[in-house]
Specification:
The chain has helices at 9-19, 36-39, 43-46, 114-120, 164-171, 204-207, and strands at residues 54-58, 61-64, 82-83, 98-102, 110-113, 123-131, 154-163, 179-184, 201-203, 213-218, 221-222, 232-234, 247-253, 268-270, 285-287, 294-299, 304-306, 312-319, 325-331, 339-340, 342-343, 353-359, 365-375, 399-405. The protein has two domains: 94-287, Sulfite Oxidase, Chain A, domain 2 (Alpha-Beta Complex), CATH 3.90.420; 294-405, Sandwich (Immunoglobulin-like), CATH 2.60.40.650. A hairpin with a 2-residue loop joins strand 1 (54-58) and strand 2. Strands 5-4-13-8-9 form a five-stranded mixed beta sheet. The protein is mainly β and 406 residues long. Bound molecules: ligand MTE and molybdenum atom.
Length: 406
């Protein structure tokens, strides 16, 4: 007969934290047994999220915001979307934690402790826009599999850490380096330790940008566990899937990184437009790089009611991947005419920009307010759904809200 094994003490401690009290007789818990009190964990409490956030999936956890919850200039944790491909790692302890840099194009393999990283390299802080490549997926037809994100898989927090380039240069980069790939501590859904939930990366040029951080703080505090504690790669302006959470290893590659979710239709779109529903061969798919121009009206909430004669002051954010947003406009006549909004400059490169406008309505009735951003290369958001693709990425159609004048 197989001997009964018991849960590790460390696992028990973390379960007790979630339950909020000691598990009396916890040492007698059989391995793999999940206490009832933990099977219905309240994600809002667990992740300290606002109750108005939408849970799209619990295995793995995927949670999104609503447009009006993203009104802050800097996104607080409670409104920040969570996108996980695997299971959140447990017991992340900075004391035993290390970061290793390796790969064909690293001049040496080097391992740093958390303390070394923090003391050896200069600290930098940037506001960085992170948008999931699949944000807006729910609109595509035929529908795409995956989390049905509406508009809330985007955030712009203040990230503090060290520059990835400083660490890579400390290790030494060979001339043939073309890409970096991250390896993280999260657990594959199958729980097979040989499989990685996700292991993506960026071209070496993006890795060497000043704003590409190995962050240890978000909004001035330790990064919340769900967002990558203790160390996270943050490469703003690109699909957020390149911003690896719970980073343990970064490989400097002499070819395009070939980790989990770099191939097939994962985070790739047809290199040339295809008809909705068309099957696309792997070799005709291209990796998503800089995200397209987009904007979001964060005030008021859709459905706002105003009295005739009242002026409406709308607010929102606009972002354009690697580029700056040059213009934001609004329309109240379904896109027939557009007027300029006030638009702030970004606080730093790759931070979203804030816009506002004071709108008057000619008479009582139903209106929609549409917002449209244009990037520094004069590319504007489409009014309707852009190019269909198998996984439903890059929906940057104009955001709109309903307004009633009574
Ligand atoms: N290790 C790891 N990093 C990851 C992921 C993941 O599942 N595991 N998801 C990626 C994806 S697809 C997105 S959109 C962002 C989401 O970041 P957030 O959960 O902090 O908002 O993290 C990225 N980094
Ligand atoms: Mo994502």
């Amino acid at each position: 007969m197989k001997r009964r094994s018991f849960v590790k003490k460390s696992v028990m401690t973390s379960m007790a934290t979630v339950l909020g009290s000691e598990i009396v007789f916890g040492t007698k818990l059989p391995n793999g047994y999940i206490p009832l009190g933990m099977q219905d964990v309240d994600p809002f409490i667990l992740f300290q999220k606002d109750k108005r956030m939408t849970v799209l999936n619990s295995k793995p956890w995927n949670i999104e915001a609503k447009a009006h919850l993203l009104d802050d200039k800097i996104t607080p944790n409670k409104y920040m979307f969570i996108r996980n491909n695997g299971l959140i790692p447990e017991n992340m302890d900075v004391r035993g934690w290390t970061l290793t840099i390796d790969g064909e194009s690293a001049k040496q393999n080097k391992t740093y402790t958390f303390k070394e990283l923090k003391s050896k390299f200069e600290h930098h802080s940037y506001q960085l826009t992170l948008e999931c490549g699949g944000n807006g997926r729910s609109e595509f037809d035929p529908p795409a599999k995956g989390n049905q994100w509406t508009v809330g898989a985007v955030s712009c927090a203040q990230w503090t850490g060290i520059r990835l380039k400083d660490v890579l240069q400390d290790v030494g980069i060979k001339d043939d380096a073309v890409y970096i790939g991250y390896h993280a501590a999260d657990i594959h859904l199958s729980r097979d330790p040989k499989k990685e939930a996700i292991s993506r990366g960026v071209p070496i040029t993006k890795a060497l940008q000043d704003e590409t951080l190995l962050a240890f703080q978000m909004n001035g505090e330790d990064i919340p566990l769900a967002h990558g504690y203790p160390l996270r790669l943050v490469a703003g302006g690109w699909p957020a899937s390149v911003s690896g959470k719970w980073i343990e290893r970064i490989s400097i590659r002499n070819k395009v990184h070939d980790g989990a979710k770099m191939m097939g239709s994962a985070y790739r779109v047809p290199c040339n437009p295809v008809a909705p529903g068309e099957k696309v061969n792997d070799q005709d798919m291209c990796i998503i790089e800089s995200m397209p121009v987009k904007s979001l009206i964060t005030y008021p909430k859709t459905g706002a009611m105003l009295k005739k004669g009242e002026e409406l002051r709308i607010r929102g954010h606009a972002w354009a991947g690697e580029l700056e947003v040059a213009k934001t406009e609004y329309s109240i006549d379904f896109g027939s005419t557009w007027r300029d909004c006030l638009l702030d400059k970004p606080v730093n490169r790759l931070a979203w920009q804030h816009f506002s406008a004071a709108i008057s309505f000619p008479k009582k009735g139903y209106y929609e307010v549409w917002a449209r951003a244009t990037d520094s290369q004069r590319v504007s958001q489409p009014m309707l759904l852009p190019g269909w693709n198998p996984k439903g990425y890059l929906n940057n159609a104009c955001h709109r809200i309903a307004v009633k004048i009574v």
